[in-house]
C-alpha cells in the first residue's frame, strides 16, 4: 500500500504546469456555474406544520375556525344575512351533541302561496347554524278555509315545498313536524266527522308522496302525518295531532304505548311535537279551544312517561316555560301575525330557536333564540317571569316558584285564583 501511494505522488509531480493550470481553471469555472444556478432558484422555506394538508373542522369544532375561514364556506345569501346582524356578525352558540333548528307558524293569509321574507331568511341561514335536523310545530300552509278548492290547497303545499321542504331535501336535512290547524285542522262537527276532511286528505297525500320524503327514521308511521314517532340518534320524537284542542282517547292510548316502546325507553331524551300548547300565553289565544283540553292531565301523563320537552306553536310568541317537570317551548312565529303576551306590554316579535341537546348537562337542552327581523338574540331576562293564562300559570324556564315575590304571587292569584297559580 505504501509503494502505491509513493508512485501516485511521483506521477503528480510529472504533470506539466500547463496541464495543472487547465485543471484549476475547469474547477473554478465549475464552482462559478454552481453558484449561479443556486442563486436562480426560488426561496425554499423550512417546512412547517402549517404546510401539511388540513381537514375542515368547522362543522365539528366551529370555535377552532377563524371567522374568515368559516364565513368563506357560506353561500352568498347566507353570508349576506350573517353580515346584516351587525359588525360582529351573527351569534353562533356553542354546539351541543345534537342541534335542532325549530321553526313554527309559517303561513300568511288564508289560501296564500306567498311567504313572509323571514321564512326564506331562516332557510338561507341553515348553513350557518349547521343543524342535524329541522323541526316545525305546525302551520306550514294557510288553510282552514272551506272555500278553498283542491287546486288551491295543492298550490299552497307546492309553495311550501318550494320555500322550505325542497331546500331541506337538497341539503339532506331531516325534517320532523306536527300538523297545525291551518295545515289540516282536526276540528270535528256535531256528527263526529272532520270539518276540514278535504284539507286533511290533501295534506296526507302531500306527505305520503315519496318525492316529499322528510328524511326521518320512523318508529311508527301508521297514521303519519297526524300521529307518528321517529328517532334521531338518542332522541325520541313523538308528534300528535294538536291541530284542535282535543285528542281522542284511542289516540291518547297510542301516545302512551309509543312512549313506552323500546325505542322511547332507550332514548336519552323524549320530545313531543304538537301545535296547540297546553297553557295559554298570548292575547287572542287566551281562550278555551286555543289550548289543549285537560292540560294538567296531559302534562301529568307526559311527566309519567319522562317526556322532557313539549314544543308547540299556535300562540305566535316565543316563550321558554316550564310547569311541573315538563319543559314547555312555546315557539315564535316566522309567518304573519306575532302576538303579545298575556299581561305584558312587550312588543311582539318573530322568532326562531336553535335548540342544542347536551347529554352531559343536567338541563339537557339549551335555547338560542333570534328576533328574525333584526337577528338580535332574545334573552330570557327580556321575557315575563311568569304568564297567567286562563288555564294556569307558566313559569319562565329559569324561574322557580320560590323565586317569585309575594307581590307576583298575589298578582297571579288575583287573576286566576290560588289553585291555578302553581308551578
Description of the molecule:
With 423 residues, the chain is of the alpha/beta class. The chain is built from 13 helices and 14 strands. A nine-stranded mixed β-sheet has the order 4-5-6-7-8-10-9-14-13, with helices on both faces.
Features:
single chain, 423 residues, alpha/beta, nine-stranded mixed β-sheet, five-stranded mixed β-sheet, 13 helices, 14 strands, 17% strand, disordered N terminus
Strand order of the largest sheet: 4-5-6-7-8-10-9-14-13
Helix/strand order, N-terminal first:
HHHHEHHEHEHHEEEHHEHEEEEEEEH
Biggest pleated-sheet summary: 9 strands, mixed
Strand content: 15-25%
Mean pLDDT value: 87
Q: What's the total number of strands?
A: 14
Low-confidence stretches: 1-71
- The Rg value, from CA coordinates, equals 33 Å
Q: What is the terminal-to-terminal distance?
A: 107 Å
Helix content: 25-40%
Q: Enumerate how many helices there are, as a single number.
A: 13
Question: Which word captures the global form?
Answer: globular
**Helix vs. strand class:** alpha/beta
What layout of secondary structure does this protein have?
Blueprint: H1 2-13, H2 17-40, H3 67-72, H4 76-84, E1 98-103, H5 117-124, H6 126-129, E2 133-136, H7 150-170, E3 175-177, H8 181-184, H9 197-208, E4 217-223, E5 227-232, E6 235-239, H10 249-259, H11 262-266, E7 269-273, H12 295-304, E8 309-312, E9 319-323, E10 326-330, E11 351-357, E12 365-371, E13 386-389, E14 392-396, H13 406-416
Parallel strand pairs: 1-2, 2-3, 6-7, 7-8, 8-10
Antiparallel strand pairs: 1-11, 4-5, 5-6, 9-10, 9-14, 11-12, 13-14
Amino acid at each position: 500500500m505504501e509503494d502505491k501511494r509513493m508512485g501516485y505522488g511521483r506521477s503528480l509531480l510529472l504533470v506539466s504546469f500547463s496541464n495543472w493550470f487547465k485543471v484549476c481553471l475547469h474547477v473554478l469555472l465549475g464552482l462559478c456555474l454552481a453558484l449561479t444556478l443556486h442563486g436562480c432558484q426560488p426561496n425554499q422555506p423550512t417546512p412547517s406544520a402549517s404546510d401539511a394538508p388540513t381537514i375542515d373542522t368547522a362543522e365539528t369544532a366551529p370555535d377552532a375556525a377563524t371567522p374568515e375561514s368559516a364565513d368563506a364556506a357560506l353561500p352568498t345569501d347566507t353570508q349576506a344575512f350573517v353580515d346584516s346582524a351587525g359588525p360582529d356578525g351573527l351569534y353562533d352558540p356553542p354546539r351541543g351533541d345534537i342541534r335542532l333548528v325549530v321553526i313554527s307558524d309559517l303561513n300568511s293569509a288564508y289560501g296564500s302561496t306567498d311567504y313572509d321574507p323571514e321564512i326564506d331568511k331562516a332557510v338561507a341561514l341553515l348553513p350557518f347554524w349547521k343543524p342535524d335536523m329541522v323541526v316545525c310545530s305546525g302551520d306550514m300552509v294557510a288553510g282552514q278555509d272551506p272555500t278553498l278548492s283542491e287546486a288551491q290547497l295543492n298550490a299552497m303545499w307546492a309553495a311550501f315545498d318550494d320555500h322550505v321542504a325542497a331546500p331541506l331535501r337538497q341539503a339532506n336535512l331531516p325534517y320532523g313536524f306536527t300538523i297545525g290547524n291551518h295545515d289540516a285542522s282536526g276540528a270535528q262537527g256535531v256528527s263526529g266527522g272532520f270539518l276540514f276532511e278535504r284539507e286533511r286528505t290533501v295534506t296526507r297525500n302531500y306527505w305520503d308522496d315519496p318525492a316529499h320524503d322528510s328524511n326521518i327514521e320512523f318508529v311508527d308511521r301508521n297514521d303519519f302525518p297526524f300521529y307518528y314517532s321517529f328517532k334521531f340518534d338518542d332522541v325520541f320524537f313523538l308528534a300528535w295531532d294538536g291541530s284542535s284542542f282535543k285528542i281522542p282517547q284511542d289516540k291518547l292510548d297510542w301516545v302512551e304505548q309509543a312512549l313506552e316502546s323500546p325505542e322511547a325507553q332507550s332514548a336519552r331524551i323524549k320530545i313531543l311535537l304538537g301545535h296547540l300548547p297546553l297553557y295559554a300565553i298570548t292575547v287572542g289565544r287566551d281562550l278555551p279551544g286555543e289550548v289543549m283540553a285537560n292540560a294538567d292531565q296531559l302534562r301529568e301523563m307526559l311527566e309519567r312517561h319522562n317526556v322532557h320537552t313539549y314544543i308547540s306553536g299556535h300562540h305566535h310568541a316565543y316563550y321558554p316555560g316550564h310547569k311541573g317537570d315538563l319543559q314547555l317551548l312555546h315557539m315564535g312565529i316566522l309567518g304573519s301575525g306575532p302576538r303579545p303576551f298575556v299581561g305584558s306590554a312587550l312588543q311582539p316579535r318573530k322568532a326562531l330557536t336553535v335548540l342544542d341537546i347536551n347529554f352531559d348537562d343536567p338541563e339537557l337542552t339549551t335555547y338560542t333564540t333570534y328576533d328574525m327581523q333584526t337577528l338580535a338574540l332574545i334573552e330570557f331576562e327580556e321575557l315575563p317571569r311568569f304568564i297567567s293564562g286562563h288555564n294556569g300559570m307558566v313559569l319562565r324556564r329559569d324561574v322557580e316558584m320560590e323565586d317569585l315575590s309575594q307581590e307576583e304571587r298575589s298578582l297571579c292569584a288575583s287573576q286566576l285564583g290560588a289553585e291555578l297559580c302553581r308551578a
